[in-house]
Amino acid sequence: MILGIVQEKGGVGKTTTTINLGAWFANLGHRVLLVDLDPQGNLARGLGVTGTPGAMYRVFRDPAYDILEAAQSTGYDRLDVVAADTSLEAAEIELVSVLSREHVLRRKLTAPSIMERYDHILLDCRPSVGVLTINAMVASDRLLVPVETQYFALESVHTLMSVVQTVRETLNPALTIAGIVPTKHEPRVRVCQVVLKGLEERYPSYLTRTIIRKYVAYPEAQLRGAPIHIAAPGSEADDAYRALALEILGEGQAGEPAPVKTPRRSRRDDAGVAQPGLPLE
Ligand SMILES: Nc1ncnc2c1ncn2[C@@H]1O[C@H](COP(=O)(O)OP(=O)(O)O)[C@@H](O)[C@H]1O
Ligand SMILES: [Mg+2]
Q1: How close is the Cα of 241 to the center of ligand 1, in Å?
Q2: Which of 192, 199, 222, 278 is a plausible cystine mate for 46, CB 3.0–4.6 Å?
Q3: Residue 11 CB–ligand 1 contact under 6 Å
Q4: Banded model confidence at residue 34, pLDDT cuts 50, 70, 90
């Protein structure tokens, strides 16, 4: 599966989700590649990896450059990363004049050598919808949308969903929504409660059962360059991403006690996979 982690807002937990969800996929036995599509380059750093300079830029601009050359081991089993840095900013501009510019990443990621090597590829997007993010949407089978339960959350999801609809109509009809996942949630804070309720009402079939609460353990883990299941194994913060991993993989459903600390009623009637035909809002 190629899973794009997208949101036009910054600071909502895209990179945190890419790292910890990817690390849990790997921990569950899957072979995982994490790809940074944000010139800020936080992804590899958050895993304690010093990225190869210009790796992601070359993926976009050098047709002969294999993504396997760009992939670096994180030191954690079954978990590799392709790093980005500020040089990727140039690709955003240069690609504008390239023929079939929206399909560059898809061509690279669907090469047989990559498909054989990895079970899942996670794409950590930048907080804007330019040609790099469109490349991620075209390359993805599914999208995961982290939403901080704060002011303007509904507006940001609405905007993103209309972009997704356009991409489906024009570039990638097979694109589905894996879920909208509430992040940095504070259950006792009024605004968080109101926003979560709004998301439940507006996107009942897309909202994940797992809610990622606000825990200082996440930034602390990133500071140490470690995924949460290494930095704080068995903590509530760790359990949350384990639950999300199982939910996205379609495991841990009926019959198993909910691994989340705040179990909620299931909103899905389809084993956790949002239906492609459902309206987007
Ligand atoms: N659930 C959370 N609880 C507390 N802090 C979080 C949580 N998710 C992310 N953060 C912190 O918020 C900041 C922004 O998160 P990040 O994942 O980099 O967002 P994005 O990639 O969407 O810009 C980082 O310092 C990160 O450690
Ligand atoms: Mg980020």
Answers
A1: 13
A2: 222
A3: yes
A4: very high
Task: State if residue 250 touches ligand 1 by the CB under 6 angstroms criterion.
Answer: no
User: For residue 273, which phi and psi values (nearest 5 degrees)?
Assistant: -110, 120
Task: Answer yes or no: is the C-beta of 40 below 6 A from any ligand 1 atom.
Answer: no
Whether the CB of 263 sits within 6 Å of ligand 1: no
Instruction: Enter the pTM of the model.
Output: 0.90
Lookup result for tokens 């982690």: 5
How far apart are the C-alpha atoms of 79 and 44, rounded to whole Å?
11
The span from the CA of 65 to the CA of 276, in Å, is 33
Which has the closest alpha carbon to 57: 74, 44, 41?
41
Residues 166-211 pLDDT 10s: 999 999 999 999 999 999 999 999 999 999 999 999 999 999 999 9
CA 270 to ligand 2 center in whole angstroms: 30
What CATH number does the domain located at 2-249 have? 3.40.50.300
- Report which residue type is found at 250: G
Distances in whole angstroms, Cα of residue 120 to Cα of each of 2, 248, 260: 6, 11, 23
Is the C-beta atom of 220 inside 6 A of ligand 1? no
User: Is residue 271 pLDDT above 50, yes or no?
Assistant: no
What Å distances lie between residue 31 and 28, 42, 179, 219, CA to CA?
9, 21, 21, 25
Instruction: Spell out the domain ranges in the chain.
Output: 2-249
